[in-house]
Amino acid sequence: MASLVPKVYRARNLSSDADSKLSAAKIISAHLGDVAADDVVVYSVADEARTESATKTRTATVMFRKPPSLLQQDSRAQEWVVRNAGNIGPIIDTHFFGLTSLNHVNEPQHRVDCIAICGLAGHPFGSWQPHGGDKDYMWIRDTLPAHLPHVRFYIYGYDTAIAGSNSTQNVKDISGTLINTLQACNLGTSDAKPLVFLAHSLGGVVLKQALVQVAKISGKTLGQRLSILDKISGIIFFGVPSSPMPFESLHSIVQAQPNEGLVRDLTNKSEYLGELEDQFSHIPFLENMTTFWAYETKLTRTVAKARDGALSMSGPLALLVDRASATSQSIYSHRDATIQIDEDHSGIVKFRQSDTALTIIIHKLQIMVGQDVRPISGPHQGTSGYTSKLLGPAQEPSRREAFHWDLSAIRDALRASQRDLREDQIEKNYEGTFSWVYDDDTTGFRQWLLGGRGIYWIRGKPGSGKSTLMKYIYHNERTAQLLHEWGPPGSRAEQMQLGFFFHHRGSEVQRSFSGLLRSIITQIFEQKPQLLSCLGPALDATYHETAATRGLGSLQSELEKVFTEAGLQQLQEEELAVLLRCQQTKPRQSKGSTSLARELRRLLKSRGVVIEDVTGPDGPLWPDSSANEALLSEVQREELRLSFYTREEEGGYLWSQSQLLNIIDALFTQRILSMHICLFLDALDEYDGEPEFITGFLRHIQERGEGSRCRMRICFSSRPWAVFERHFGSSPGFAIHKYNEDDISRYCWNSIDERFPNGLIPLSSLVPSIIERARGVFVWVRLVLRDLFEAVTNSRNEGEGHLRESLKQCLDSLPDELDDYYESIIDRIEETFRWAAYVVLEILSRIEETVRVDTMLKALAISKATTGEEAERGFRKLHLADKMREAKSRLRSLSGSLIEFRAITARGPSVEPPVDNGDVDDSDDGDSNGSPEAEVVQLMHQTVKDFVLTPDFKRIVLRSRSAHVVENGHTFLARTYLFDHGLRHNYRSEVQFVRQAQSAERTTGKSQFRVFQHRESAYRMFERLIGFANVSTILPGPADPNDPEIALSIAASSGLLLYLEDSLVENPSVFANSRIDLLWLLVHALMRIHGSQLPCETALAVANLMIKNGYTPPSLSSFITRSKVGRVEYGETIMRLILMILQARDSMGCNIWEDTNGGGASVLSGEAAEYVQEWGRSYPELVREWEGAQEPKQAWRRRRLYAYKLKGMFRRS
């Protein structure tokens, strides 16, 4: 076969019949007449970019194996018109001027348009091809569509010839033509798709000038032309100069030519490029675009003129566009938005298929068009860093139902009740402190607020006042005023301040990644309610994803199944709409499923099918009807939809991190309004996950905002950890302990004046020494002043000289390091109180939630109990009638005053004034006369928790007894939640019991077998764990609080393996003689309210332990009938439990299906019974498959298949 002629042609004006490369080749061949279709090689065929008309035509890019005679008639021609019978046929050219479509995208999938613009003296098509004679590859046409299937690609051509040009056009002329071309082809108009540009060299200058021109336009066409700016999603500039180029030799060549002005504007003989860059950088709409700058790193041969006048690239080597010019100076301030390509100025866009740089460009384009990108493998957090998941255009499954949500109510449910609690608890700074953060230029903070980018890091030693400073900055009017100046002049972006204060001693929502995301999302929606519409699509996607995971399907598909199985004509559109409107998506009094049952029965009756219904626990049930399955599924779907209206902490929908990130990305990609967000994060070191993950997220969210409608800067505070230093060491910021000496001085003097209004010279004389030794740590100062004030009180009757010496000795005896200071405080606690100090500080260091004062007193009362009876006696002796003053005084004295108290309000524990700049409570609240239930107790500072959790703490506080003590805070809390029958918490006491009991076994390696044997308390916890309504169904006889198996059931349901092992030691036949369906308890425990679910692997470990030690599992039919699990996420665990049942009953010689050894009738019928029998017959093979599925993907598929089979069984049982 003949080789290709090394030239690419464009064939325009092809009829709509050219719907494939083959048909296009045949049409071109037929019109030319002297070239066979086999000699016409078509590389692309696509709809022409032109104004809407009645006749649709297509464009193709073509090469020939045999040149047609028409194209050889005039060697200087660049365009040929084929005429047949006087009609104009294909128009073939090599100049590629105007817009050329490179790929076809069906309209439903078409989401973005991308236009490539070539540079000076570059060919519109050839500029993007690799060097060399092989012309059959062009990366924009041949590679990009495969990676970005929703994007239509175009190239834009214009005349930029240098030698012999007779054109007087300049950059502004070319830019004006570009604007008009885009409008004529319906690109960039209000109803067009988003636009992305690839611009090389002069092409980028033309594009910048076009955007500047559009931004300046006023008059009748303002709205139409501004829509071009509004439609641009992103730009990649390839070697586009922002300062003059070394084109002196080229300028000398074109002198006296008509195009001299065009070339001169690019050299240092003109100020044009500098002025254009200044205008371009101040376009208000620029903030809505994602921009990347690619720069060359190889020298380029400049143009030279030979003696015969011909131009060639044989001049001296030069770097035509340096890094700074090509990146608009971003190489210094925003390097992550720059792309280095190791080629010369021409080769920077001449990619081959194998080029690494092409892979980078594809990735950047995917970011700009919103396509799903996972640059780091794995969809979740880990030690290696943050994995970004960008929200792409929704891949809408067919037949997806639309819902009408109350978005404001769902926003309120997303907001955690304790979202702002930590911020409220941090007291205001002392008057006059921290103003230096704005006034001292060496901090760079004021300059960063005015115009900085990226991340600002405030670091400091523990207890140096970081949180107080962050609250001061967050609420200070000067911060808002300076941020208002952020952005280019004329910017219409909305300024927003968001804040989140991590709190490791607080609740989960105060220290977790999900809590941070929920806070950011709800703050944005509260400040800008018009953005709530962004929540709708993300909510739809979350609902459908969760429904699919749980195997719930959709109402529409199930209704169609009902009518198909009944042999009835399918529903009309109006009838279907009536039924779908019954779906409840907002909280209301009546159930949507009830309305659905009524309407469905009416429609079936109209088709001659009459069904009598009976009432079941979940609503109407229709025996022997396939419609019943649709109704039961709708009940579950309804519960899922309504769960979005309840806070997560109160049993509502548990949002995953990926779902919350989808909402964040929806806010970044929205086009409703532009936002400039400054996010203030306090105590990043108190985040409860991996530091690498949260640092990666901060970088991602800040970089994600660059060039989008949601630009973000982040100011955060933390301890100077190495991981933060590694990631943010080069970011602007300061160390607070190097600046707060005057603040500490002011705090010392104010504290002394408040305590001793008439002055106290011996104490005042020590202030300079205190300041020097503090080294910026407020907490140390607070502790020192407290000890000095106590020394003054103890020496009140002594003379001034003796007092001065006593105070000096006291100060000299105090350690400089906080840990040493805390140890000295513990050493002062009387031996009688040491155990109580250990209990209180251990509990406050271990618990993840707040602890009420009365709960702490109860924990102390039973902390020494070794049996349930001892614990019960401790509770009976406890008198909580004491007023708060006495209770708090006792707790403070026995803990060395390392704790603080907070009053409980509707929002949670509130602050008690005053608090110093060390972020700790220094209040004397001894006069409070409230009840012990009205306040919570917590550690005075995070550094106390750090000290308590050190390995030496137990030895320090308990001394010689420490070797014999295994109990810790989890132990004491588990006992308290078991025995306190009247506890009422945000998290129910059973949730805390399960958490603390599991943690106690994990951290101490010991069970609480004897203590948990208290039958009355065990029975009450049993009722709460499984639900009062289920007690009678699980016990073999009438409910009996003295049943000895109750404690065993609690341990199994809570996954307390050490307790179960100790039960076996006490009674080896405890499982063999069990009368309770313990496996049912495990299934129930899998699906308890979130926060106390039993982990799947723990449930399997418990089941395995019981079966290996004589437990006879129920029959398969009994297990399935009672378990009724229709949630696919538990399918794998349930299936493994079933395999255990099959193996165990078979090895015991029991009937696999029935509870009797005889035949017996199965409680299952129809398809469910067939499933069970099939499983029973083949269970050995299933076991071998399960154990032999070594290949992960294969194993996953099999497990998924089994899970769906199980779901089918349970739904039919």
From TrEMBL:
Nephrocystin 3-like N-terminal domain residues: 432-541
Transmembrane residue ranges: none
Organism: Immersiella caudata
UniProt keyword annotation of Transcription present: no
Domain of life: Eukaryota
Statement: the UniProt record of this protein carries the keyword Electron transport: no
Chain segments annotated as coiled-coil in the UniProt record: none
Protein keywords: Repeat
One Pfam family cited in the UniProt record for this chain: NPHP3_N
Taxonomic classification: Eukaryota, Fungi, Dikarya, Ascomycota, Pezizomycotina
Residue ranges with Acidic residues bias: 918-927
This protein's name: Nephrocystin 3-like N-terminal domain-containing protein
Region (Disordered): 909-932
